[in-house]
Amino acid sequence: MLMGDREAAMKKFKRAGSVFAGMATAQGVAMALLVATMLSPLSSALAVNYEKTPAGVTDDSRDPGRSADFMRAIWVPPGTLVTFLGRHDASVTNLRAFFTATSFIKPAVTVDQYLALVGNYYPDGQDLVLMRCRPSPEQVQRVTPILATWPNVFSAIVSDFSGRGFSCPPNLADGDNIMYCAARGYSDSARSVLVAGLSLALDAASSIFADSAASPGAAALKRNYGIYPAFTGLGFSVAGSGTVGSMTAVDTLRESIVPEYLLANTTLEEAGCRCIQVPAYGNKKSADARHTKPVDPNYVWQKGRLREGACRETRRLGAVSAGFDPATAAGESRSAQ
């Protein structure tokens, strides 16, 4: 019996002990151990089954360091060399980049469905870049994935901007300063009325935006973290938010479907990623056939071995058998690019 099975069996033994308390000591102990051992395979099977249920998948997704399997889609001008998770150029360098949980789009969904779920949009004439990142334990320490909630974002801001000489109250013309002071001033605490705790976090976030997508604070969130006004900080992307200008609270909460994370903006290689870059291509039915083609994490992993640290151009989107994930196949390493 494995150590984990022995521990589970001992827990059942303790429960079973009361059932056999009236028996002679040796006989009662033997019977309790027998029952606990018989139940162990069932208990193990139930634990595995839980992990495969929607509840188990969602539970696992709330701890991004546990599964460490992330997906991201971005759009770039044709031929752009993509080597980092987020923007990293002369004009803008993101500190962190948004990803979602790979487990939420298996089996594959279409490009349009995926973009809607993560609050993205579909521009014409650009290359579609799909990343799947499976960082090793060592790489996880580098990308420091966090569930994209406001308390976690505030902690990241304080960590990223400490030592830059900001004072509080902030200079209201300096978005980074505004962002930093709001984050530093936030303090999380347990509340019996849960919405009261949420309200504190949302009020701090609102002070950064100042109710405007064009405010200095909003610009700083966008520049540093890719956070737009559609970001709720509840740990879920808002489906459809990338193509609308506003949403009601009812719709915002209803469309909070897939989890989202922020990963430190490092190179694809350092984050354990594979990546495909797909130019527009058409067929007889559509000038751009990518809309209805699959976003398949397994296909991205199979086709997306990096080429000199950059995304690999792939002429077509496709899918791998739903029952086979090459990322977890025998011999595959998380760090193998």
Features:
337 residues; alpha+beta; 2 domains; two-stranded antiparallel ribbon; 12 helices; 10 strands; globular
Task: Kindly describe this structure.
- The protein has helices at residues 3-19, 25-52, 54-61, 64-67, 111-117, 137-143, 150-161, 175-185, 194-209, 216-225, 249-254, 297-303; strands at 70-76, 96-101, 109-110, 127-133, 146-147, 236-238, 256-264, 273-278, 294-295, 312-313.
- The chain is α+β, with helices and mostly antiparallel strands and 337 residues long.
- The strands form two sheets. Strands 1, 2, 4, 5, 6, 7, 8 and 10 form an eight-stranded mixed beta sheet that branches. Strands 3-9 form a two-stranded antiparallel ribbon.
- Residues 1-24 have low confidence and may be disordered.
Please render the helix and strand layout as text:
Layout: H1 3-19, H2 25-52, H3 54-61, H4 64-67, E1 70-76, E2 96-101, E3 109-110, H5 111-117, E4 127-133, H6 137-143, E5 146-147, H7 150-161, H8 175-185, H9 194-209, H10 216-225, E6 236-238, H11 249-254, E7 256-264, E8 273-278, E9 294-295, H12 297-303, E10 312-313
Parallel strand pairs: 8-10
Antiparallel strand pairs: 1-2, 1-4, 2-7, 3-9, 4-8, 5-7, 6-7
Helix pairs in contact: 1-2, 2-3, 7-8, 8-9, 8-10
User: How much strand?
Assistant: 5-15%
**What is the SS-derived class?**
alpha+beta
Instruction: State the share of residues found in helices, binned by percent.
Output: 25-40%
C-alpha-based Rg, rounded: 24 Å
Distance between the termini: 37 Å
What's the overall average pLDDT, rounded?
88
Number of domains: 2
